[in-house]
Amino acid sequence: MKKKSGFFIKPFVAMLALIALAGLLFASCGSGAGSGTRTIKYEVTGSPSTTAVIVYYNESGSPITLPNETIPWSKTVDLQSGVVAIGFGWTITSSSGTYTGKIYVNGKEEKSATTNIGNLTVTF
User: Fold this and answer.
1) pTM of the model
2) Domains of the chain with bracketed CATH
3) What is the rounded CA–CA span in Å between residue 108 and residue 4?
């Protein structure tokens, strides 16, 4: 039986790259404090019941990795004061197709991308 050795490695490497990119974004934001209350909604839509690796930034700006989430997926967080940037990334692991990721800030769509491996960031 032939193994699919690259099946897991490619998405894993892509997610590591997304985490590194997001880390650079946060490091370059300086020490300015975000002002006001911000409700963030992260969303990935596409073929139902497929799975994805998802990395998003929580209320305090810390990265959270979800290794096996079912699409469609969404998460809403209320940012703590002082968070100056947010972002998330996704890698579809179980199927091909068209997938769209979106970030909403206070109910308004700020960014979107349609791809199997993507990331989005918003700075304040």
Assistant:
1) 0.74
2) 5-123 (2.60.40.2880)
3) 41
